[in-house]
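Long-time lurker, first post. I've been practising inverse folding by hand and with some scripts of my own, and I keep getting stuck on stretches where the structure tokens seem ambiguous. Below is the full token string for one chain I'm working on. Before anyone asks, I'm not after the true native sequence, just a reasonable design that respects the backbone. If someone could post their per-position residues I'd love to compare against what I wrote down in my notebook.
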């Protein structure tokens, strides 16, 4: 393909790199879906893998041990960044859930206190009415 690396926006390049990483490291259906999405986006923008990684080797490199394979340091850092982003999203989600539970707990506590106050008020009102009625009856007769 022609040299499109200068034409790719940084946002698109980051997105494509993340999708590529997921297509390489994902589990089960994630890999296939990420690969399909990557292929569609590459085709849509008339790009190739070389355009996404203009300065890095994206192909697997053989090490001394023929059975083990490693990737360039770029992928290690890229995977780390992806992991950190996912971890941050997970923590934010957990924090939102914790805050929602805390808010619900406070609301329930306020409702309980209000019911308790209403109950005490009704009891006092009942006593007052009883005393009032008794007083009226006593003074009437």
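-- Answer (accepted) --
I ran through it position by position. Result:
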């Amino acid at each position: 393909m022609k040299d499109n690396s200068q034409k790719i926006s940084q946002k698109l390049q980051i997105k494509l790199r993340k999708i590529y990483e997921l297509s390489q490291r994902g589990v089960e259906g994630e890999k296939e879906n990420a690969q399909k999405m990557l292929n569609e986006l590459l085709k849509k923008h008339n790009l190739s893998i070389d355009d996404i990684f203009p300065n890095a080797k994206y192909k697997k490199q053989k090490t001394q041990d023929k059975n083990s394979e490693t990737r360039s340091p770029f992928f290690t850092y890229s995977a780390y960044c992806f992991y950190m982003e996912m971890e941050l999203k997970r923590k934010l989600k957990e924090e939102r859930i914790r805050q929602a539970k805390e808010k619900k707990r406070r609301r329930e506590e306020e409702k309980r206190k209000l019911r308790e106050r209403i109950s005490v008020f009704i009891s006092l009102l009942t006593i007052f009415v009883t005393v009032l009625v008794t007083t009226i009856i006593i003074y009437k007769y």
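A couple of notes from the structure itself: The CA atoms of residues 29 and 55 lie 30 Å apart. The helical segments are 10-25, 29-44, 49-52, 73-140. Happy to go over any region you disagree with.
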